Amino acid sequence: MHEEGMQILKMLEAGKISADEAARLLDAVRDRLGEGETRHGKSLRVRVTHPKTGKQAVNLSIPIGLAKIAAKLVPKKAKDKLQDEGVDVDAVLSQVLSDNVGKIVDVESEDGNVEISIE
Fold first, then answer.
1. Cα–Cα distance for residue pair 63/8, rounded to 1 Å
2. pLDDT values of the chain reduced to their tens digit, one per residue, 119 residues
3. For residue 64, which of 46, 90, 48, 89 has the smallest C-alpha distance?
4. Is 113 helix (H, G, I), strand (E, B) or coil?
5. 18 Cβ contact list (under 8 Å, min separation 6)
6. How many CA atoms lie within 13 A of 104 on its CB side?
7. What's the DSSP call for residue 99?
């Protein structure tokens, strides 16, 4: 899945597809290749909800191995925005690389609530 997953992440980074579309594509690739979460263990889950309605805008789950690769693709501008919101990007990446399981980021802002966890 490495090559297909990278193509999906590059399309996401370029703005050609949304996070929801990327999640669906990654799930389809995993299903096709028989690479469900139970086979490979942990996954990185990102959930974004609207602060007023509580409606989920993003629910993305990707295998940890792919998340490690994707971390290298995060634009500096996005990292800076996260830093401005109080998210220590380096600490998050460190958690992704560790063997820890559980919630690693929980940010509430006027733009949306973001939860990142390793499951």
1. 13
2. 467 877 888 888 888 888 878 887 887 777 666 554 434 467 878 888 888 888 888 888 888 777 777 777 778 888 888 788 777 877 877 777 776 778 887 878 877 888 878 88
3. 46
4. strand
5. 12
6. 22
7. S
Do you know the residue count of the chain? Answer: 119
Give the predicted TM-score (pTM) of the model: 0.51
The two beta strands, 43-49 and 113-118, are antiparallel
Residue reference for tokens 């949306």: 112
For residues 116 and 49, the answer to whether their CB atoms sit within 8 Å is no
Q: Which element (helix H / strand E) includes 43? A: strand 43-49
Report CA-CA distances (Å) from 67 to 35, 93, 95, 116.
15, 9, 11, 12
Unique residue bearing structure tokens 């597809």: 17
The C-alpha atoms of residue 37 and residue 31 are separated, in whole angstroms, by 10
